[in-house]
Protein backbone atom coordinates (compact mmCIF):
# COMPACT_ATOMS: atom_id res chain seq x y z
CA UNK A 1 0.00 0.00 0.00
CA UNK A 2 1.12 3.54 -0.72
CA UNK A 3 1.79 4.63 2.87
CA UNK A 4 2.94 1.28 4.24
CA UNK A 5 1.62 0.05 7.55
CA UNK A 6 0.26 1.91 10.54
CA UNK A 7 3.38 0.69 12.36
CA UNK A 8 5.54 2.42 9.73
CA UNK A 9 3.59 5.66 10.17
CA UNK A 10 3.97 5.58 13.95
CA UNK A 11 7.69 4.78 14.09
CA UNK A 12 9.78 7.72 15.26
CA UNK A 13 11.51 9.42 12.35
CA UNK A 14 9.41 7.57 9.77
CA UNK A 15 6.02 9.13 10.28
CA UNK A 16 4.05 12.00 8.90
CA UNK A 17 2.21 14.03 11.50
CA UNK A 18 -1.21 12.38 11.79
CA UNK A 19 -3.94 14.87 12.65
CA UNK A 20 -6.87 13.75 14.78
CA UNK A 21 -9.20 13.43 11.78
CA UNK A 22 -6.75 11.05 10.09
CA UNK A 23 -6.29 9.05 13.28
CA UNK A 24 -10.08 8.73 13.63
CA UNK A 25 -10.38 7.64 9.99
CA UNK A 26 -7.80 4.89 10.53
CA UNK A 27 -9.43 3.73 13.79
CA UNK A 28 -12.90 3.63 12.22
CA UNK A 29 -11.57 1.72 9.21
CA UNK A 30 -10.05 -0.96 11.41
CA UNK A 31 -13.23 -1.16 13.55
CA UNK A 32 -15.39 -1.61 10.44
CA UNK A 33 -13.09 -4.32 9.10
CA UNK A 34 -13.22 -6.26 12.38
CA UNK A 35 -16.99 -5.86 12.60
CA UNK A 36 -17.32 -7.25 9.07
CA UNK A 37 -14.98 -10.15 9.83
CA UNK A 38 -16.80 -11.03 13.06
CA UNK A 39 -20.45 -10.42 12.18
CA UNK A 40 -21.11 -9.72 8.51
CA UNK A 41 -18.89 -12.11 6.58
CA UNK A 42 -20.46 -15.26 5.15
CA UNK A 43 -17.96 -17.26 7.21
CA UNK A 44 -17.20 -15.26 10.39
CA UNK A 45 -13.62 -15.44 11.58
CA UNK A 46 -11.33 -14.59 14.44
CA UNK A 47 -8.37 -12.60 13.12
CA UNK A 48 -6.05 -13.62 15.96
CA UNK A 49 -3.04 -11.35 15.32
CA UNK A 50 -4.20 -7.75 14.94
CA UNK A 51 -1.29 -5.32 15.31
CA UNK A 52 -0.21 -2.07 13.71
CA UNK A 53 2.15 -3.79 11.27
CA UNK A 54 -0.85 -5.70 9.83
CA UNK A 55 -2.84 -2.53 9.10
CA UNK A 56 -1.94 -1.14 5.68
CA UNK A 57 -2.74 2.43 4.63
CA UNK A 58 -3.48 3.66 1.11
CA UNK A 59 -2.58 7.17 -0.06
CA UNK A 60 -5.77 8.54 1.57
CA UNK A 61 -5.12 6.77 4.91
CA UNK A 62 -7.85 4.18 4.33
CA UNK A 63 -6.98 1.24 6.60
CA UNK A 64 -6.88 -2.31 5.27
CA UNK A 65 -6.25 -5.33 7.48
CA UNK A 66 -3.64 -7.64 5.96
CA UNK A 67 -1.91 -10.95 6.72
CA UNK A 68 -4.77 -13.32 7.37
CA UNK A 69 -2.37 -16.21 8.04
CA UNK A 70 -3.63 -16.65 11.60
CA UNK A 71 -7.30 -15.87 10.91
CA UNK A 72 -9.58 -18.80 11.63
CA UNK A 73 -13.11 -19.29 10.40
CA UNK A 74 -15.38 -20.27 13.27
CA UNK A 75 -18.78 -21.85 13.59
CA UNK A 76 -20.53 -18.89 15.11
CA UNK A 77 -24.11 -18.66 16.30
CA UNK A 78 -25.07 -15.07 15.49
CA UNK A 79 -27.88 -15.09 18.05
CA UNK A 80 -25.95 -16.47 21.04
CA UNK A 81 -22.49 -15.21 20.00
CA UNK A 82 -21.03 -18.64 20.86
CA UNK A 83 -18.37 -20.43 18.85
CA UNK A 84 -17.57 -24.13 18.75
CA UNK A 85 -14.30 -24.76 20.57
CA UNK A 86 -11.23 -25.59 18.49
CA UNK A 87 -7.55 -25.70 19.45
CA UNK A 88 -5.17 -23.93 17.09
CA UNK A 89 -1.56 -22.74 17.14
CA UNK A 90 -1.09 -19.01 16.75
CA UNK A 91 2.00 -16.86 16.24
CA UNK A 92 2.09 -13.39 17.61
CA UNK A 93 3.59 -10.98 20.09
CA UNK A 94 2.22 -11.69 23.58
CA UNK A 95 2.01 -8.03 24.65
CA UNK A 96 -0.89 -7.61 22.19
CA UNK A 97 -2.72 -10.56 23.77
CA UNK A 98 -5.80 -10.12 25.89
CA UNK A 99 -5.16 -11.09 29.53
CA UNK A 100 -7.49 -14.10 29.31
CA UNK A 101 -5.63 -15.32 26.23
CA UNK A 102 -2.29 -15.02 28.02
CA UNK A 103 -3.66 -16.77 31.13
CA UNK A 104 -5.71 -19.57 29.58
CA UNK A 105 -4.70 -19.71 25.94
CA UNK A 106 -8.26 -18.98 24.80
CA UNK A 107 -8.65 -17.03 21.57
CA UNK A 108 -12.02 -15.41 20.89
CA UNK A 109 -13.79 -12.55 19.19
CA UNK A 110 -13.17 -10.68 22.43
CA UNK A 111 -9.41 -11.11 22.08
CA UNK A 112 -9.62 -9.41 18.67
CA UNK A 113 -11.46 -6.53 20.36
CA UNK A 114 -8.68 -6.32 22.97
CA UNK A 115 -6.13 -6.16 20.13
CA UNK A 116 -8.17 -3.33 18.61
CA UNK A 117 -7.88 -1.52 21.94
CA UNK A 118 -4.10 -1.85 21.72
CA UNK A 119 -4.26 -0.35 18.21
CA UNK A 120 -6.35 2.55 19.57
CA UNK A 121 -3.72 3.12 22.26
CA UNK A 122 -1.06 3.35 19.56
CA UNK A 123 -3.15 5.67 17.39
CA UNK A 124 -3.95 8.01 20.28
CA UNK A 125 -0.45 8.03 21.76
CA UNK A 126 1.27 8.23 18.38
CA UNK A 127 3.68 5.49 19.43
CA UNK A 128 3.87 1.75 18.80
CA UNK A 129 3.92 -1.11 21.25
CA UNK A 130 7.32 -2.69 20.57
CA UNK A 131 7.16 -6.20 19.19
CA UNK A 132 10.52 -7.71 18.47
CA UNK A 133 9.78 -11.26 19.56
CA UNK A 134 7.27 -13.72 18.19
CA UNK A 135 6.07 -16.69 20.22
CA UNK A 136 4.19 -19.82 19.26
CA UNK A 137 1.30 -20.54 21.60
CA UNK A 138 -1.46 -23.13 21.46
CA UNK A 139 -4.85 -21.53 22.01
CA UNK A 140 -8.45 -22.61 22.32
CA UNK A 141 -11.06 -20.70 20.33
CA UNK A 142 -14.17 -20.05 22.39
CA UNK A 143 -16.67 -17.32 23.15
UniProtKB/TrEMBL annotation:
InterPro entries: Kinase-like_dom_sf, Prot_kinase_dom, Ser-Thr/Tyr_kinase_cat_dom. It is found in: Cell membrane. Keywords: ATP-binding, Kinase, Lipoprotein, Membrane, Nucleotide-binding, Serine/threonine-protein kinase, Transferase. Pfam families: PK_Tyr_Ser-Thr. One of its GO terms (cellular component) is plasma membrane. One of its GO terms (molecular function) is protein serine/threonine kinase activity. Its EC number is 2.7.11.1. Its main location: membrane. The keyword Lipoprotein applies. It is a lipid-anchor. It comes from the Eukaryota. The keyword ATP-binding applies. It catalyses: L-seryl-[protein] + ATP = O-phospho-L-seryl-[protein] + ADP + H(+); L-threonyl-[protein] + ATP = O-phospho-L-threonyl-[protein] + ADP + H(+). Residues 1-143 form the Protein kinase domain. It is an enzyme of class 2 (transferase). PANTHER family: OS07G0668900 PROTEIN, SERINE_THREONINE-PROTEIN KINASE PBS1. This is non-specific serine/threonine protein kinase. It comes from Phtheirospermum japonicum.
Amino acid sequence: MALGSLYDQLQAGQRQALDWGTRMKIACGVAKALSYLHYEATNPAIYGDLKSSNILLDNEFNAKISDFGTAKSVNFNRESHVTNTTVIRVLGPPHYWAPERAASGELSLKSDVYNFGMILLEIISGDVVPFNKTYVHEVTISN
